[in-house]
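Record type: ASSEMBLY
Status: queued
Input:
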Amino acid sequence: MSGNQSYEVLINPHPLYWVRDREQILIVDEQSQEIYALQHVEAAVWTWLALAYSYAKIVELSTAMLGVPSAEAEQRLQVIFQNWQNTGILAIEAR
Amino acid sequence: MANLVVTDVCNMKCSFCFAHDYLRKSSFISLEAFEQRLDFIERSDINEIRLIGGEPSLHPRFPELIALAQQRGKHIVVFSHGLLSERALACLESLPVEECTILINMNATRTPGQRNTQEQHQRWMTLRRLGQRALLGFNIFEANPQFDFILPLILEANCRRVIRLGLAHPILDGQNEYLHPKQYPMVGHKISQFAKTAAELGVKLELDCGFVRCMFSNDDMETLHQAQADIGWRCNPILDVDLTEQVFHCFPLSGKVHRPFFPDADARNLRALLVEQTRHYRMAGIYKECSTCSFRQRDECMGGCLANTMKRFQPAALRLRVPDDVVADWPRAMA
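Status: finished
Output:
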């Protein structure tokens, strides 16, 4: 993440509604009529996203939560983002 | 079951009213449209004709609506605040007892938060005349509901020996006074004690929609069973057919969960569509614990009122700047 790094913006591509339950976060996608249940790390990452934390902050928190080196945490994060993109709850903002 | 909205006019100002946001117009159903609704009830094999509003008795042609309903030979239910005009009261009084139920909302008022002796007196006169036709209802919107006054009224006016208790639910995206789920356990205990007192006088309690199992302790449940209270944990679309050719799940969800009402509509299909529209929210409940609760898993509870559940959800507005190499191969959202 150097000073010359260029960025993309990730967004929810259509309206989603979510709620924090005792053991999971539930996300309703009214467009696809699907519901997603996120637990553990995924639930935490969703919360940080909802709190509008920066990518660097999310990597830092993931590193602490998982107890792994930063590079590994970032890799795990990328897998999560990619899964969410595959299910349609996250996408790159169109320019 | 289906409720037919015959007017959106009401002359009360109940703070807890679920239809608060709906009662902004001044429309009355035409006799033609009402007959169409009655055809729908018959076609759907529904055995009751349930008139709701607003206040149904304010319809200028209320006696004609009742006469049309009566011709269908089904049980007639009218949801009313009980402060009726002489004309409306005489009309209801003329119905045979076994053919109708006039459900009187005992805490409807023009003056929320104040004791209104004039209203109480007028309602008392109504009850005396309706007698066994009247079934008394009470909406709970405070943690310490005062419903004891209903028992002597039932006995003195010889009304049906049942009290229908309802929880005041929130209007989704609206504003009304409602009972917060945090207050449910306190209310649950109070209901169980009331059920015991009522049973001693031969009066049964009937619980309306949106109750949850965990609001009652095991002791409360035992008391309710001994009092033969009619307990349910339901939250299903009853089907409210409104004046603008819409069918909605219920008043609290009327702004969000609705479908068009077609002349040849069938209740079963409409109900299935409304269930499907809300299916994904049902995984949650009114509490954080609902989605993993053992009562729920054993089908002993539905997780409470859907409007309360949906009110817990918040819209996502995600926006995260990430290094472009992280998302190099991703497709873009539609512009």
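Annotation: The radius of gyration of chain B is 22 Å.
Annotation: Chain B has a mean pLDDT of 94.
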